[in-house]
Design goal:
Strand order of the largest sheet: 1-2-3-4-5
Shape: globular
Structural class: alpha+beta
Radius of gyration: 14 Å
Helix content: 10-25%
Strand content: 15-25%
Order of helices and strands: HHHHEEEEE
Largest sheet: 5 strands, antiparallel
Oligomer: single chain
Low-confidence stretches: none
Distance between the termini: 34 Å
Length: about 130
């Protein structure tokens, strides 16, 4: 339903108000993984080690981003990675780990967040990462 009818492009759950939280609509995002035949987010992440479906990961990331009011960014036009902007952050989709890489400027990597959690894992911070490389 999400894919065929592209309901996320005009979603009533979309965040339209500024929020301190990167994922202000994360409580509504459980329906996203259900639409992709997962029981819940835990089931989704438990199956990611064996999931090489990059298209599915990009679709889920895009729906999460749009639902939470993020805007697709063209900061890196030559890059094939999906990139979004939200508040003062850039969020690049990491299809290997099903996470968003979080940057507060094009050259400042802060760590990563899971598709369903807004807590930045700063243990994953990497000063060598740039959004356009």
């Amino acid at each position: 339903v999400f894919i065929k009818h592209e309901i996320w492009t005009d979603c009533q759950f979309t965040n339209t108000k500024p929020s301190k939280d990167l994922l202000p609509k994360r409580n509504n995002s459980g329906a996203i993984v259900l639409a992709f035949r997962y029981k819940n987010w835990e089931d989704y992440y438990n199956n990611q080690q064996n999931n090489s479906n990059i298209t599915e990961k990009k679709q889920i990331a895009t729906i999460v981003a749009i639902t939470n009011g993020w805007i697709e960014s063209n900061e890196c036009p030559e890059q094939r990675r999906l990139l979004f902007s939200a508040k003062n952050y850039y969020l690049a989709v990491d299809t290997q780990h099903s996470t968003f890489e979080v940057y507060n400027s094009p050259n400042s990597h802060l760590g990563e967040i899971f598709f369903n959690d807004s807590i930045i894992n700063t243990d994953k911070k990497d000063k060598t990462r740039k959004i356009c490389n």
